[in-house]
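Still learning folds. Look over my entry:

…
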Amino acid sequence: MNKLIKSLPALALVLAATFAFAFSSPKAAAPEYGLDGSTWVNVENLQIGENYLCNESEQVCTRTAPSSSAPMVKEGTFEFIGE
């Protein structure tokens, strides 16, 4: 009985760690869109540098939605290379 009482703090710690992993979910990636001329491009699954560039400038490269009033994600000038 004494041995069981001494191991309770360790058991509580293991149980807390288990619940922390079991009930936390990863955050979904926020969508990103870049304006290529007059077409909005969803760059969520594209690689920067390979499929598109955000050239240095003080403009908006990508936004959270396909709208000019959506919040900025990355700064720069959007240049779509292709898929």
In short: The radius of gyration is 23 Å. The longest helix spans residues 2-22. The mean pLDDT is 86.
